[in-house]
Design brief:
single chain; Neuraminidase; 4-stranded antiparallel beta sheet; 27 strands; binds 2-acetamido-2-deoxy-beta-D-glucopyranose
């Protein structure tokens, strides 16, 4: 059994809190998924000019470059771990570093265990200190130990058109399948999984998905899905047969009621959703029950200025509430400090 420790940090003069619930197992190994439980106040704002935290040196495969980055994970020490799709690798950038450090793949395109092929998402399983990667074009989910002498991964799930990954704790790995238009959850060693959402062919019904990409699972095991080609975000309350549209769902467009090809997403403790609205080059937040969202960064047409994106991909936060957005066609990751 686990004991719970709740630490409350008061950050800055604004009265806002990040509640970090650290769960420890019997061995004292930290289970840090719940680090993601940020209680971001409704009136929080972020500096509109992003600071480049990784890449930003044009498209390429040097260690200071990225080539269409997609998924993103922010570690405890503000290191960003990026799925570098076009370079078939996962690269880690410590804060202030000018170069990244390849931590998986980067050995050319292929299906060897030392290779990746167009990976789309990554997360860290703290309990086993490993990276879990959606190795998209190899149709598999792989695990790479995080040790610096690691040269290859192992296959966790095979024959799956995975795109997005999520884990609420070590018990379940959730995988979005953008060919079967469904999300399944898997226990360790389980290769078939259990259907969570979708799986009713593609479509825009409330029990359907159309090209699900990124997913997020909260503490109550509610599942949020970026339902990309339906231009909406769906929420599946644990055990529900149908989902609820919680953002978009009004066709593709750039009104505040709409999304256009949503990608990465994150839900905070009160159910506010932060989503990368990729074709609108913006990140939005949608409070629970809202009929429209608000633009938190970007939304100023496509471009390479500090307040712009050219395709906003994944979004994530560090423990201090700073926002990170993958800017895929500018080959960079932007960090937006909390104001
Ligand atoms: C990064 O740089 C900032 C400003 O120069 C400094 O305050 C901070 O401590 C640095 N962080 C790390 C992790 O080196
Ligand atoms: C790998 O990690 C070990 C233990 O943390 C460290 O001593 C060693 O310097 C590292 N090697 C490289 C090449 O980073
Ligand atoms: C892989 O999955 C597809 C689609 O579900 C299925 O048709 C095929 O039989 C599977 N192949 C193997 C080798 O399991
Ligand atoms: C992880 O999730 C499972 C399934 O909901 C739950 O039974 C278990 O208590 C959770 N573990 C922790 C450490 O929260
Ligand atoms: C997984 O699915 C296959 C095909 O439906 C079935 O034969 C097999 O028994 C299942 N395995 C488990 C562990 O449920
Ligand atoms: C859902 O799909 C139906 C049938 O294709 C279409 O008529 C309808 O406009 C779609 N609804 C939305 C909100 O896109
Ligand atoms: C959009 O970007 C341009 C050029 O960087 C800038 O002049 C303008 O103020 C920006 N508009 C908004 C709403 O951020
Ligand atoms: C955005 O990226 C596309 C390639 O994906 C490129 O063709 C286009 O010129 C870029 N637009 C701007 C404004 O940088």
């Amino acid at each position: 059994m686990s004991d719970k420790e709740t630490e409350i940090f008061l950050v800055s003069t604004k009265i806002w809190m990040i509640v970090v619930v650290t769960l420890k197992n019997a061995d004292g190994v930290q289970n840090a998924y719940f680090r993601d439980i940020l209680n971001i106040p409704a009136n929080a704002t972020w500096v509109k000019d992003g600071v480049t935290g990784a890449g930003g040196n044009g498209k390429g495969n040097a260690i200071n470059q990225l080539s269409n980055p997609y998924g993103l994970f922010v570690d405890d020490d503000q290191a960003v771990i990026i799925v570098d799709w076009g370079n078939h690798r996962v690269i880690q950038w410590k804060k202030n570093d000018t170069n990244g450090h390849v931590i998986a793949g980067g050995k050319g395109v292929g299906n060897g265990l030392h290779q990746l092929h167009s990976p789309t998402d990554v997360l860290i399983d703290k309990e086993t200190d490993s990276l879990i990667i959606c190795d998209s074009n190899n149709k598999r989910v792989v695990r790479w130990p995080r040790r610096n002498d690691t040269t290859q991964g192992e296959i966790v799930i095979n024959n799956i058109s995975c795109w997005g990954l999520a884990m609420n704790n070590h018990t379940y790995l959730y995988v979005a399948d953008n060919n079967k238009h469904e999300v399944r959850k898997y226990q360790l060693g389980d290769t078939n999984g259990t259907l969570v959402t979708g799986g009713n062919d593609r479509g825009n019904g409330t029990n359907q998905l159309y090209k699900p990409t990124y997913i997020y699972v909260d503490q109550q095991q509610n599942v949020y899905v970026s339902d990309r080609d339906n231009h909406r975000v769906m929420k599946w309350v644990k055990g529900a047969k149908e989902g609820i549209v919680v953002a978009g769902g009004q066709g593709s467009g750039n009104a505040l009621t709409q999304l256009s090809l949503p990608l990465g997403l994150f839900a905070d403790i009160v159910g506010t959703i932060y989503v990368a609205d990729s074709s609108n080059h913006r990140a939005m937040c949608w409070t629970q029950g809202a009929k429209q969202g608000s633009v938190i960064v970007g939304g100023n047409s496509s471009g390479a200025a500090a307040n712009q994106f050219n395709g906003s991909g994944a979004v994530n936060f560090d423990q201090h509430g700073n926002l990170y957005v993958v800017d895929f066609s500018n080959f960079r990751v932007q960090r937006f400090p909390l104001e």
